[in-house]
Amino acid sequence: MSFEYASVASGSCGNCHYISYKNTKILVDAGLSGKKIEENLNNLDINLKNTSGILITHEHADHIKGAGILSRRYNIPIYANESTWKAMENKVGKIKENNIKIFENNRPFYIEDIQIIPFPVHHDAADPVAYTFYNGKNKMSIATDLGCVCEKIKENLYDSKLIVLEANYDVEMLKMCSYPYYLKKRVLSDKGHLSNEDAGRFCVELVKRGVQRILLAHLSKENNFPELAFETVKSVLKEKNIHVGKNLELSVLQRGKISNLYAI
């Protein structure tokens, strides 16, 4: 039996991912309204009833907006590390005590049939993480909101069958956009986001280490668009003799829209 994965939404306006294996269903982040998450999942005939957990990467609104309402509506546990929980608890409303699940970074844990490893990433939040998921045979990973990619992050992502990877902005679009200087500086920093070019260079390493499918995610609404992200990453790969469609399956996740359901 395979993992199933779908992007419920991915972008600077809201992020949510759906993963299932056997009878276990989980969300990674819930950065849209609870109603919008339900509507998007309904388009794939997925019901949130009996969802086993909501995993939080960090406390920014585009990752937690709907977490509280979904937890209360469906009695879903929320998983976060201690620093992230402290930073978000006043933003998500009252959560049942037994639905507050605190994990330690780099320590594997299970949600029913799925093994999860949370690991630190570089972003301007309390203690942000990315995740890898195992079902006994296969591994998949979700890594967004990355200011830079260090060796520890690489080691966690290598050999994944599928990776959801940030390609947040185009450098020239960011330089010319209406953002104030401090915000441009933040996005460009080691605790900001990955550019299309950064993502492309990292994809080269990932393909060399066994990754077969990459979904580009968390595109900026103002400083990127799907065709540009795809073509930039494809071009960087081609320079290294890695060809999309032959050596790698490459796709772009859409802002605000449910993706196809992927089997891993």
From TrEMBL:
<dbReference type="InterPro" id="IPR001279">
    <property type="entry name" value="Metallo-B-lactamas"/>
</dbReference>
<dbReference type="InterPro" id="IPR036866">
    <property type="entry name" value="RibonucZ/Hydroxyglut_hydro"/>
</dbReference>
<protein>
    <submittedName>
        <fullName>Phosphoribosyl 1,2-cyclic phosphodiesterase</fullName>
    </submittedName>
</protein>
<dbReference type="Pfam" id="PF12706">
    <property type="entry name" value="Lactamase_B_2"/>
</dbReference>
<dbReference type="InterPro" id="IPR052533">
    <property type="entry name" value="WalJ/YycJ-like"/>
</dbReference>
<feature type="domain" description="Metallo-beta-lactamase">
    <location>
        <begin position="13"/>
        <end position="193"/>
    </location>
</feature>
